[in-house]
Amino acid sequence: MTEATIHQNPATSPVHDEAIAHALAVTTRGVQELLPADDWVKKLQKSHRTGQPLRIKLGLDPTAPDIHLGHTVVLNKMRQLQDLGHTVIFLIGDFTGRIGDPSGRNSTRPPLTEEQIQANAQTYYQQAGRVLDLDKAEIRYNSEWSNRLHAAEMIALASKYTVARMMERDDFHKRFHSGQSISIHEFLYPLMQGYDSVELKADLELGGTDQKFNLLMGRHLQEEYGQEPQCILTMPLLVGLDGVDKMSKSKHNYIGITEEANTMFAKVLSISDDLMWDWYPLLSFRSLQDIATLKQEVAQGRNPKDAKVLLAKEITARFHSAAAADAAEQDFIHRSKGGIPDEIPEITLQGAPLGIGVLLKSAGLAASTGEGNRLIDGGGVRVDGTVISDRGLKLEAGTYVIQVGKRKFARVSLQAG
Protein backbone atom coordinates (compact mmCIF):
# COMPACT_ATOMS: atom_id res chain seq x y z
CA MET A 1 0.00 0.00 0.00
CA THR A 2 1.31 3.44 -0.87
CA GLU A 3 1.99 6.00 1.79
CA ALA A 4 -0.89 8.33 2.48
CA THR A 5 -0.76 11.74 0.85
CA ILE A 6 -1.45 14.31 3.56
CA HIS A 7 -1.70 17.79 2.08
CA GLN A 8 -0.48 19.82 5.01
CA ASN A 9 2.18 22.44 5.62
CA PRO A 10 3.72 21.63 9.02
CA ALA A 11 5.25 25.10 9.21
CA THR A 12 1.84 26.76 9.11
CA SER A 13 -0.21 24.11 10.95
CA PRO A 14 1.60 22.94 14.07
CA VAL A 15 -0.34 20.43 16.13
CA HIS A 16 0.59 21.05 19.74
CA ASP A 17 -2.43 19.77 21.63
CA GLU A 18 -2.13 16.08 22.52
CA ALA A 19 -5.84 15.42 21.89
CA ILE A 20 -5.65 17.02 18.43
CA ALA A 21 -2.49 15.10 17.59
CA HIS A 22 -4.20 11.85 18.61
CA ALA A 23 -7.29 12.68 16.54
CA LEU A 24 -5.12 13.46 13.52
CA ALA A 25 -3.23 10.16 13.94
CA VAL A 26 -6.53 8.25 14.09
CA THR A 27 -7.80 10.10 11.03
CA THR A 28 -4.75 9.42 8.90
CA ARG A 29 -4.12 5.77 9.76
CA GLY A 30 -4.15 3.75 6.53
CA VAL A 31 -5.57 6.58 4.41
CA GLN A 32 -4.59 7.29 0.84
CA GLU A 33 -5.27 11.02 0.90
CA LEU A 34 -6.50 13.65 3.34
CA LEU A 35 -6.97 17.09 1.90
CA PRO A 36 -6.58 19.76 2.84
CA ALA A 37 -5.10 18.51 6.11
CA ASP A 38 -4.55 22.11 7.28
CA ASP A 39 -8.32 22.62 7.18
CA TRP A 40 -8.94 19.34 8.97
CA VAL A 41 -6.64 20.33 11.81
CA LYS A 42 -8.50 23.63 12.12
CA LYS A 43 -11.83 21.79 12.22
CA LEU A 44 -10.50 19.45 14.93
CA GLN A 45 -9.23 22.41 16.95
CA LYS A 46 -12.55 24.24 16.66
CA SER A 47 -14.47 21.11 17.66
CA HIS A 48 -12.17 20.57 20.65
CA ARG A 49 -12.54 24.22 21.69
CA THR A 50 -16.33 24.44 21.33
CA GLY A 51 -17.32 20.87 22.22
CA GLN A 52 -19.29 20.68 18.94
CA PRO A 53 -18.75 17.33 17.20
CA LEU A 54 -17.78 17.33 13.53
CA ARG A 55 -20.10 15.86 10.90
CA ILE A 56 -18.52 12.90 9.11
CA LYS A 57 -20.27 11.67 5.97
CA LEU A 58 -20.11 8.37 4.11
CA GLY A 59 -22.50 7.62 1.29
CA LEU A 60 -23.12 4.16 -0.16
CA ASP A 61 -25.47 3.41 -3.02
CA PRO A 62 -27.43 0.21 -2.38
CA THR A 63 -26.46 -1.39 -5.70
CA ALA A 64 -26.09 -4.92 -4.30
CA PRO A 65 -27.82 -6.76 -1.46
CA ASP A 66 -24.79 -7.24 0.75
CA ILE A 67 -21.85 -5.34 2.22
CA HIS A 68 -18.44 -7.01 1.84
CA LEU A 69 -15.07 -6.47 3.53
CA GLY A 70 -14.14 -3.88 0.90
CA HIS A 71 -16.94 -1.64 2.14
CA THR A 72 -15.78 -2.03 5.73
CA VAL A 73 -12.48 -0.26 5.00
CA VAL A 74 -14.28 3.09 5.03
CA LEU A 75 -16.82 1.93 7.62
CA ASN A 76 -13.94 1.08 9.98
CA LYS A 77 -12.58 4.59 9.53
CA MET A 78 -16.03 6.00 10.26
CA ARG A 79 -16.19 3.97 13.47
CA GLN A 80 -12.76 5.26 14.54
CA LEU A 81 -13.95 8.85 14.06
CA GLN A 82 -17.22 8.04 15.81
CA ASP A 83 -15.28 6.74 18.79
CA LEU A 84 -13.52 10.12 18.94
CA GLY A 85 -16.94 11.64 19.66
CA HIS A 86 -17.86 12.97 16.23
CA THR A 87 -21.21 12.55 14.48
CA VAL A 88 -21.10 10.01 11.67
CA ILE A 89 -23.68 10.16 8.93
CA PHE A 90 -24.33 6.90 7.11
CA LEU A 91 -26.00 8.08 3.93
CA ILE A 92 -27.87 5.53 1.87
CA GLY A 93 -28.00 6.70 -1.74
CA ASP A 94 -31.48 5.55 -2.59
CA PHE A 95 -31.81 8.49 -5.04
CA THR A 96 -28.30 8.44 -6.53
CA GLY A 97 -28.59 4.66 -6.85
CA ARG A 98 -31.24 5.29 -9.50
CA ILE A 99 -28.73 7.30 -11.55
CA GLY A 100 -25.82 4.88 -11.19
CA ASP A 101 -22.30 5.96 -10.19
CA PRO A 102 -20.09 6.17 -13.31
CA SER A 103 -16.89 6.10 -11.22
CA GLY A 104 -14.40 3.70 -12.77
CA ARG A 105 -16.91 2.58 -15.38
CA ASN A 106 -16.23 2.16 -19.07
CA SER A 107 -19.94 2.02 -19.88
CA THR A 108 -23.22 3.37 -18.57
CA ARG A 109 -24.29 1.59 -15.39
CA PRO A 110 -27.71 -0.08 -15.77
CA PRO A 111 -30.33 1.50 -13.49
CA LEU A 112 -31.89 -0.41 -10.61
CA THR A 113 -35.61 -0.67 -9.94
CA GLU A 114 -37.16 1.11 -6.98
CA GLU A 115 -37.90 -2.28 -5.40
CA GLN A 116 -34.25 -3.42 -5.72
CA ILE A 117 -33.00 -0.17 -4.21
CA GLN A 118 -35.36 -0.34 -1.22
CA ALA A 119 -34.56 -3.99 -0.50
CA ASN A 120 -30.81 -3.36 -0.73
CA ALA A 121 -31.06 -0.18 1.37
CA GLN A 122 -32.64 -2.11 4.25
CA THR A 123 -29.87 -4.70 4.08
CA TYR A 124 -27.16 -2.00 4.05
CA TYR A 125 -28.65 -0.40 7.15
CA GLN A 126 -28.74 -3.68 9.05
CA GLN A 127 -25.23 -4.71 8.02
CA ALA A 128 -23.64 -1.30 8.69
CA GLY A 129 -24.65 -1.84 12.30
CA ARG A 130 -22.02 -4.56 12.53
CA VAL A 131 -19.37 -1.83 12.28
CA LEU A 132 -20.98 1.46 13.33
CA ASP A 133 -22.84 2.29 16.53
CA LEU A 134 -26.13 3.06 14.82
CA ASP A 135 -27.67 4.37 18.04
CA LYS A 136 -25.21 7.27 17.90
CA ALA A 137 -25.19 7.72 14.12
CA GLU A 138 -27.38 9.65 11.69
CA ILE A 139 -28.93 7.32 9.13
CA ARG A 140 -30.07 9.37 6.15
CA TYR A 141 -31.43 8.71 2.66
CA ASN A 142 -30.64 11.23 -0.07
CA SER A 143 -34.14 10.91 -1.48
CA GLU A 144 -35.14 13.11 1.50
CA TRP A 145 -34.00 16.23 -0.36
CA SER A 146 -33.30 15.02 -3.89
CA ASN A 147 -36.90 14.01 -4.53
CA ARG A 148 -37.99 17.56 -3.59
CA LEU A 149 -35.78 19.32 -6.14
CA HIS A 150 -37.88 20.72 -9.00
CA ALA A 151 -36.65 21.44 -12.52
CA ALA A 152 -35.56 25.04 -11.84
CA GLU A 153 -33.49 23.94 -8.84
CA MET A 154 -31.85 21.14 -10.83
CA ILE A 155 -30.93 23.64 -13.55
CA ALA A 156 -29.50 26.00 -10.93
CA LEU A 157 -27.46 23.13 -9.49
CA ALA A 158 -26.19 22.10 -12.92
CA SER A 159 -25.10 25.69 -13.60
CA LYS A 160 -22.54 25.51 -10.81
CA TYR A 161 -20.15 23.23 -12.75
CA THR A 162 -18.83 23.30 -16.29
CA VAL A 163 -18.76 20.57 -18.92
CA ALA A 164 -15.03 21.18 -19.41
CA ARG A 165 -14.31 20.42 -15.75
CA MET A 166 -16.65 17.44 -15.80
CA MET A 167 -14.72 16.01 -18.75
CA GLU A 168 -11.50 16.22 -16.74
CA ARG A 169 -12.83 13.26 -14.79
CA ASP A 170 -10.72 10.27 -15.78
CA ASP A 171 -13.47 7.81 -16.69
CA PHE A 172 -15.43 10.39 -18.73
CA HIS A 173 -12.22 11.50 -20.46
CA LYS A 174 -11.30 7.95 -21.45
CA ARG A 175 -14.79 7.06 -22.64
CA PHE A 176 -15.07 10.24 -24.71
CA HIS A 177 -11.72 9.75 -26.45
CA SER A 178 -12.38 6.07 -27.11
CA GLY A 179 -15.71 6.86 -28.74
CA GLN A 180 -17.83 5.27 -25.99
CA SER A 181 -21.12 6.91 -25.19
CA ILE A 182 -21.70 9.06 -22.11
CA SER A 183 -25.30 9.74 -21.17
CA ILE A 184 -26.23 13.24 -19.94
CA HIS A 185 -27.75 11.81 -16.76
CA GLU A 186 -24.30 10.48 -15.74
CA PHE A 187 -23.12 14.09 -15.31
CA LEU A 188 -25.84 14.44 -12.68
CA TYR A 189 -24.33 11.80 -10.40
CA PRO A 190 -21.34 13.76 -9.06
CA LEU A 191 -23.53 16.86 -8.81
CA MET A 192 -26.12 15.03 -6.71
CA GLN A 193 -23.49 13.40 -4.50
CA GLY A 194 -21.90 16.80 -3.97
CA TYR A 195 -25.29 18.34 -3.17
CA ASP A 196 -25.72 15.73 -0.43
CA SER A 197 -22.80 17.40 1.38
CA VAL A 198 -24.57 20.75 1.12
CA GLU A 199 -27.75 19.35 2.66
CA LEU A 200 -25.88 17.52 5.41
CA LYS A 201 -23.37 20.34 6.09
CA ALA A 202 -20.59 17.77 6.16
CA ASP A 203 -17.19 18.60 7.65
CA LEU A 204 -15.51 15.51 6.20
CA GLU A 205 -16.53 13.05 3.53
CA LEU A 206 -15.02 9.59 3.16
CA GLY A 207 -14.74 7.34 0.15
CA GLY A 208 -12.53 5.01 -1.83
CA THR A 209 -9.80 6.40 -4.07
CA ASP A 210 -12.15 6.04 -7.06
CA GLN A 211 -14.49 8.56 -5.40
CA LYS A 212 -12.07 11.51 -5.28
CA PHE A 213 -13.78 13.48 -8.06
CA ASN A 214 -17.19 13.11 -6.41
CA LEU A 215 -15.83 14.06 -2.98
CA LEU A 216 -14.21 17.20 -4.37
CA MET A 217 -17.52 18.06 -6.01
CA GLY A 218 -19.07 18.22 -2.54
CA ARG A 219 -16.37 20.61 -1.42
CA HIS A 220 -16.91 22.79 -4.50
CA LEU A 221 -20.70 22.92 -4.14
CA GLN A 222 -20.54 23.77 -0.44
CA GLU A 223 -18.46 26.83 -1.35
CA GLU A 224 -20.98 27.69 -4.10
CA TYR A 225 -23.79 27.57 -1.53
CA GLY A 226 -21.85 29.69 0.98
CA GLN A 227 -20.86 26.90 3.38
CA GLU A 228 -17.50 26.07 4.90
CA PRO A 229 -16.16 23.37 2.53
CA GLN A 230 -15.70 19.83 3.72
CA CYS A 231 -12.37 18.05 3.83
CA ILE A 232 -12.08 14.77 1.97
CA LEU A 233 -10.50 11.50 2.98
CA THR A 234 -9.90 8.63 0.58
CA MET A 235 -9.13 5.07 1.60
CA PRO A 236 -7.28 2.56 -0.59
CA LEU A 237 -9.46 0.11 -2.48
CA LEU A 238 -9.24 -3.34 -0.92
CA VAL A 239 -7.87 -5.89 -3.37
CA GLY A 240 -10.03 -9.00 -3.51
CA LEU A 241 -9.29 -12.66 -2.96
CA ASP A 242 -7.77 -13.01 -6.43
CA GLY A 243 -5.00 -10.56 -5.53
CA VAL A 244 -5.64 -8.60 -8.74
CA ASP A 245 -8.87 -6.60 -8.83
CA LYS A 246 -10.60 -4.57 -6.15
CA MET A 247 -12.99 -6.58 -4.03
CA SER A 248 -16.28 -6.79 -5.87
CA LYS A 249 -19.31 -9.04 -6.02
CA SER A 250 -19.23 -8.85 -9.81
CA LYS A 251 -15.65 -10.17 -9.75
CA HIS A 252 -16.59 -13.01 -7.34
CA ASN A 253 -13.51 -12.16 -5.25
CA TYR A 254 -15.23 -10.93 -2.11
CA ILE A 255 -16.00 -11.91 1.48
CA GLY A 256 -19.48 -10.85 2.55
CA ILE A 257 -19.75 -9.75 6.16
CA THR A 258 -22.78 -12.02 6.66
CA GLU A 259 -21.05 -15.14 5.37
CA GLU A 260 -20.95 -17.96 7.90
CA ALA A 261 -17.92 -18.04 10.18
CA ASN A 262 -16.20 -21.13 8.75
CA THR A 263 -16.40 -19.79 5.20
CA MET A 264 -15.19 -16.32 6.22
CA PHE A 265 -12.21 -17.78 8.11
CA ALA A 266 -11.24 -20.09 5.25
CA LYS A 267 -11.51 -17.32 2.66
CA VAL A 268 -9.16 -15.04 4.60
CA LEU A 269 -6.66 -17.89 4.87
CA SER A 270 -6.84 -18.36 1.09
CA ILE A 271 -5.26 -14.97 0.27
CA SER A 272 -1.59 -14.69 -0.66
CA ASP A 273 1.07 -13.80 1.89
CA ASP A 274 1.79 -10.53 0.08
CA LEU A 275 -1.87 -9.52 -0.01
CA MET A 276 -2.16 -10.23 3.71
CA TRP A 277 0.13 -7.27 4.50
CA ASP A 278 -2.06 -4.95 2.40
CA TRP A 279 -5.15 -6.17 4.27
CA TYR A 280 -3.70 -5.82 7.76
CA PRO A 281 -3.65 -1.99 8.11
CA LEU A 282 -7.04 -1.67 6.38
CA LEU A 283 -8.98 -4.42 8.17
CA SER A 284 -7.20 -5.11 11.45
CA PHE A 285 -7.69 -3.01 14.58
CA ARG A 286 -4.20 -3.89 15.80
CA SER A 287 -1.83 -0.96 16.23
CA LEU A 288 0.49 -0.19 13.34
CA GLN A 289 3.39 -1.00 15.65
CA ASP A 290 1.96 -4.45 16.37
CA ILE A 291 1.50 -5.07 12.66
CA ALA A 292 5.07 -3.93 11.92
CA THR A 293 6.38 -6.25 14.64
CA LEU A 294 4.39 -9.18 13.25
CA LYS A 295 5.68 -8.50 9.75
CA GLN A 296 9.25 -8.38 11.04
CA GLU A 297 8.80 -11.71 12.83
CA VAL A 298 7.64 -13.29 9.57
CA ALA A 299 10.60 -11.78 7.72
CA GLN A 300 12.85 -13.39 10.35
CA GLY A 301 11.40 -16.84 9.82
CA ARG A 302 8.02 -17.08 11.55
CA ASN A 303 5.48 -18.97 9.46
CA PRO A 304 3.36 -16.39 7.57
CA LYS A 305 0.36 -18.64 8.12
CA ASP A 306 0.50 -17.72 11.81
CA ALA A 307 -0.05 -14.05 10.90
CA LYS A 308 -2.83 -14.99 8.48
CA VAL A 309 -4.62 -17.04 11.12
CA LEU A 310 -4.50 -14.07 13.50
CA LEU A 311 -6.08 -11.86 10.84
CA ALA A 312 -8.70 -14.47 9.93
CA LYS A 313 -9.68 -14.93 13.58
CA GLU A 314 -9.88 -11.18 14.21
CA ILE A 315 -12.14 -10.59 11.20
CA THR A 316 -14.32 -13.64 11.91
CA ALA A 317 -14.70 -12.68 15.58
CA ARG A 318 -15.72 -9.13 14.61
CA PHE A 319 -18.67 -10.28 12.52
CA HIS A 320 -19.54 -13.39 14.56
CA SER A 321 -17.88 -13.99 17.94
CA ALA A 322 -14.57 -15.07 19.44
CA ALA A 323 -16.04 -18.53 20.05
CA ALA A 324 -17.14 -18.78 16.40
CA ALA A 325 -13.66 -17.75 15.27
CA ASP A 326 -12.07 -20.45 17.44
CA ALA A 327 -14.52 -23.03 16.09
CA ALA A 328 -13.79 -21.92 12.51
CA GLU A 329 -10.08 -22.41 13.09
CA GLN A 330 -10.66 -25.93 14.38
CA ASP A 331 -12.98 -26.69 11.47
CA PHE A 332 -10.31 -25.51 9.02
CA ILE A 333 -7.65 -27.69 10.68
CA HIS A 334 -10.04 -30.65 10.63
CA ARG A 335 -10.80 -30.19 6.94
CA SER A 336 -7.16 -29.68 5.99
CA LYS A 337 -6.49 -33.15 7.42
CA GLY A 338 -9.25 -34.61 5.28
CA GLY A 339 -11.83 -34.68 8.06
CA ILE A 340 -15.55 -34.18 7.66
CA PRO A 341 -17.19 -31.24 9.47
CA ASP A 342 -19.54 -32.07 12.33
CA GLU A 343 -22.49 -30.43 10.58
CA ILE A 344 -23.03 -30.77 6.84
CA PRO A 345 -26.17 -30.47 4.68
CA GLU A 346 -28.24 -33.61 4.44
CA ILE A 347 -29.94 -34.18 1.09
CA THR A 348 -32.27 -36.90 -0.18
CA LEU A 349 -32.31 -37.63 -3.91
CA GLN A 350 -34.30 -40.04 -6.06
CA GLY A 351 -33.22 -41.97 -9.13
CA ALA A 352 -30.56 -44.50 -8.11
CA PRO A 353 -28.43 -45.55 -9.83
CA LEU A 354 -27.52 -41.92 -10.50
CA GLY A 355 -24.58 -40.53 -12.48
CA ILE A 356 -22.04 -38.65 -10.38
CA GLY A 357 -22.25 -35.50 -12.53
CA VAL A 358 -26.04 -35.32 -12.18
CA LEU A 359 -25.76 -36.03 -8.46
CA LEU A 360 -23.33 -33.14 -7.94
CA LYS A 361 -25.69 -30.75 -9.69
CA SER A 362 -28.80 -32.05 -7.91
CA ALA A 363 -27.09 -31.78 -4.52
CA GLY A 364 -26.09 -28.17 -5.19
CA LEU A 365 -22.38 -29.00 -5.17
CA ALA A 366 -21.90 -27.96 -8.82
CA ALA A 367 -23.73 -25.38 -10.92
CA SER A 368 -24.20 -27.84 -13.79
CA THR A 369 -23.40 -31.40 -14.82
CA GLY A 370 -20.63 -30.01 -17.02
CA GLU A 371 -19.04 -28.22 -14.08
CA GLY A 372 -19.35 -31.42 -12.05
CA ASN A 373 -17.45 -33.31 -14.75
CA ARG A 374 -14.73 -30.66 -14.78
CA LEU A 375 -14.40 -30.96 -11.01
CA ILE A 376 -14.01 -34.72 -11.39
CA ASP A 377 -11.33 -34.24 -14.04
CA GLY A 378 -9.47 -31.94 -11.67
CA GLY A 379 -9.52 -34.45 -8.84
CA GLY A 380 -11.75 -32.24 -6.72
CA VAL A 381 -14.55 -34.73 -5.97
CA ARG A 382 -14.53 -37.35 -3.21
CA VAL A 383 -17.16 -39.94 -2.29
CA ASP A 384 -16.73 -41.26 1.24
CA GLY A 385 -13.18 -39.95 1.22
CA THR A 386 -12.16 -41.55 -2.09
CA VAL A 387 -11.17 -39.33 -5.00
CA ILE A 388 -13.38 -39.93 -8.02
CA SER A 389 -11.81 -39.91 -11.48
CA ASP A 390 -14.52 -41.64 -13.54
CA ARG A 391 -17.14 -39.32 -15.03
CA GLY A 392 -19.29 -42.34 -15.82
CA LEU A 393 -19.58 -43.48 -12.21
CA LYS A 394 -23.14 -44.29 -11.12
CA LEU A 395 -24.02 -44.54 -7.47
CA GLU A 396 -26.46 -47.14 -6.25
CA ALA A 397 -29.03 -46.52 -3.52
CA GLY A 398 -27.40 -45.69 -0.21
CA THR A 399 -25.98 -42.83 1.86
CA TYR A 400 -22.75 -41.11 0.84
CA VAL A 401 -20.62 -38.21 2.04
CA ILE A 402 -19.82 -36.14 -1.04
CA GLN A 403 -16.97 -33.62 -0.89
CA VAL A 404 -16.14 -31.00 -3.53
CA GLY A 405 -12.88 -29.13 -3.03
CA LYS A 406 -11.88 -28.38 0.56
CA ARG A 407 -15.05 -26.75 1.86
CA LYS A 408 -18.15 -28.20 0.19
CA PHE A 409 -19.74 -31.26 1.80
CA ALA A 410 -23.12 -32.96 1.68
CA ARG A 411 -24.47 -36.21 3.09
CA VAL A 412 -26.61 -37.58 0.28
CA SER A 413 -29.22 -40.27 0.79
CA LEU A 414 -29.82 -41.75 -2.65
CA GLN A 415 -33.02 -43.67 -3.15
CA ALA A 416 -34.15 -45.87 -6.04
CA GLY A 417 -36.03 -44.00 -8.74
Automatic annotation (TrEMBL):
<keyword id="KW-0694">RNA-binding</keyword>
<feature type="domain" description="RNA-binding S4">
    <location>
        <begin position="354"/>
        <end position="415"/>
    </location>
</feature>
<dbReference type="GO" id="GO:0005524">
    <property type="term" value="F:ATP binding"/>
</dbReference>
<dbReference type="GO" id="GO:0003723">
    <property type="term" value="F:RNA binding"/>
</dbReference>
<dbReference type="InterPro" id="IPR024108">
    <property type="entry name" value="Tyr-tRNA-ligase_bac_2"/>
</dbReference>
<dbReference type="GO" id="GO:0006437">
    <property type="term" value="P:tyrosyl-tRNA aminoacylation"/>
</dbReference>
<dbReference type="InterPro" id="IPR024088">
    <property type="entry name" value="Tyr-tRNA-ligase_bac-type"/>
</dbReference>
<dbReference type="Pfam" id="PF01479">
    <property type="entry name" value="S4"/>
</dbReference>
<dbReference type="InterPro" id="IPR001412">
    <property type="entry name" value="aa-tRNA-synth_I_CS"/>
</dbReference>
<dbReference type="InterPro" id="IPR036986">
    <property type="entry name" value="S4_RNA-bd_sf"/>
</dbReference>
<dbReference type="InterPro" id="IPR002942">
    <property type="entry name" value="S4_RNA-bd"/>
</dbReference>
<keyword id="KW-0030">Aminoacyl-tRNA synthetase</keyword>
<feature type="binding site">
    <location>
        <position position="249"/>
    </location>
    <ligand>
        <name>ATP</name>
    </ligand>
</feature>
<feature type="short sequence motif" description="'HIGH' region">
    <location>
        <begin position="62"/>
        <end position="71"/>
    </location>
</feature>
<comment type="function">
    <text>Catalyzes the attachment of tyrosine to tRNA(Tyr) in a two-step reaction: tyrosine is first activated by ATP to form Tyr-AMP and then transferred to the acceptor end of tRNA(Tyr).</text>
</comment>
<comment type="subunit">
    <text>Homodimer.</text>
</comment>
<dbReference type="GO" id="GO:0005829">
    <property type="term" value="C:cytosol"/>
</dbReference>
<dbReference type="Pfam" id="PF00579">
    <property type="entry name" value="tRNA-synt_1b"/>
</dbReference>
<keyword id="KW-0547">Nucleotide-binding</keyword>
<feature type="short sequence motif" description="'KMSKS' region">
    <location>
        <begin position="246"/>
        <end position="250"/>
    </location>
</feature>
<dbReference type="InterPro" id="IPR002305">
    <property type="entry name" value="aa-tRNA-synth_Ic"/>
</dbReference>
<keyword id="KW-0963">Cytoplasm</keyword>
<comment type="similarity">
    <text>Belongs to the class-I aminoacyl-tRNA synthetase family. TyrS type 2 subfamily.</text>
</comment>
<protein>
    <recommendedName>
        <fullName>Tyrosine--tRNA ligase</fullName>
        <ecNumber>6.1.1.1</ecNumber>
    </recommendedName>
</protein>
<dbReference type="GO" id="GO:0004831">
    <property type="term" value="F:tyrosine-tRNA ligase activity"/>
</dbReference>
<keyword id="KW-0067">ATP-binding</keyword>
<dbReference type="InterPro" id="IPR002307">
    <property type="entry name" value="Tyr-tRNA-ligase"/>
</dbReference>
<keyword id="KW-0648">Protein biosynthesis</keyword>
<keyword id="KW-0436">Ligase</keyword>
<dbReference type="InterPro" id="IPR014729">
    <property type="entry name" value="Rossmann-like_a/b/a_fold"/>
</dbReference>
